[in-house]
TrEMBL record:
Name of the molecule in the record: AraC family transcriptional regulator
Pfam family membership, one: ExsA_N
Entry keywords, A to Z: DNA-binding, Transcription, Transcription regulation
SUPFAM superfamilies: Homeodomain-like
Gene3D superfamilies the UniProt entry points to: Homeodomain-like (1.10.10.60)
Source species of the chain: Chryseobacterium daecheongense
Entry-linked InterPro entries: AraC_XylS_family_regulators, ExsA-like_N, Homeodomain-like_sf, HTH_AraC
Domain HTH araC/xylS-type: from-to ranges: 172-268
GO molecular-function term, one example from the UniProt record: sequence-specific DNA binding
């Protein structure tokens, strides 16, 4: 059975699966709060991996590239619910509460934790909307987001540094970033935004660092990694082509032969 992903209201998303499901690359433009009701989510981001286990809450920061694999529980189901903490509501909340942004959060991405009674009850309160036994008005949707903000700050006041950082992404080291994220098959525009650059500035800076276009470099990098996996790890393209950012096997086989002058099966 295929994964069911349903937008209950514009900022509440419910995902359900009954078989292992590999997700696609996602650019996360806004913070979101998620609750793993059953099963596990294995997430890959910036060269790191983490596991979100059952009955765990995760706060995912905005401006991230993430790929997930969904694993059903022993009972046979995977259920995950997430609510987006969008910028407009956060800015209004900060204004009303006279929050001043002080320091940028410098912690790691692993912002998941066992829910306290309040957070657990909060996600249970979303069940009627998921089950469609209640309708959600725009006002009520805003109130549910505000409630999530209140509970997060009660759980950890330091989250204020994450939620109310409205500054634009600053320029980061381009070479380090692309070497950590080359396997994500997302538009160049997304790469540019994540490095704190416009698309034109990203392409210009990329040319200075690598002496070629982003598209050329990304393809070569993925093919070199594929060559290594085939020759030294004895892996088959069908097992890794998606993880390296190729859209399909035909594209991979064609590009591989163009780059190395032989098929992947001829590599010894």
């Amino acid at each position: 059975m295929e994964t069911k992903q349903e937008i209950v209201f514009d900022r509440l998303v419910y995902s359900c699966a009954f078989e292992k499901h590999r997700g696609y690359e996602e650019f996360i433009p806004e913070h979101f709060l998620g609750f793993q009701l059953s099963g596990e989510t294995h997430a890959f981001y910036a060269g790191a991996k983490t596991i979100i286990r059952e009955n765990t809450i995760v706060l995912v920061r905005k401006n991230q590239l993430i790929r997930t694999t969904k694993y059903p529980s022993k009972s046979g189901s995977y259920k995950f619910v997430s609510i987006t903490l969008d910028k407009e509501v956060l800015q209004q909340y900060a204004l009303e509460n006279k929050f001043d942004f002080e320091n940028r959060y410098m912690g790691t991405q692993k912002l998941f934790f066992e829910p306290d009674d309040f957070l657990h009850s909060y996600f249970l309160s979303l069940t009627p909307y998921i089950d469609k036994t209640k309708e959600v008005s725009p006002r009520l949707a805003d109130l549910k987001i505000r409630e999530a903000i209140e509970l997060l700050l009660r759980c950890n006041p330091d989250f204020k540094q994450i939620l109310f950082d409205f500054s634009e992404p600053y320029k980061i080291d381009l070479e380090q970033f692309v070497n950590q994220n080359y396997m994500f098959n997302v538009p160049i525009d997304s790469f540019a935004k994540l490095t704190g650059r416009s698309t034109s500035a990203f392409k210009r800076d990329f040319k200075k660092v690598f002496n070629c276009s982003p598209g050329q470099w990304l393809l070569n990098k993925r093919l070199e990694e594929a060559h290594y996996l085939i020759k030294y790890k004895k892996q088959k393209p069908v097992d890794f082509y998606l993880d390296l950012g190729f859209e399909n096997l035909s594209h991979f086989y064609y590009a591989f032969k163009q780059r190395f002058g032989m098929t992947s099966s001829q590599i010894k």
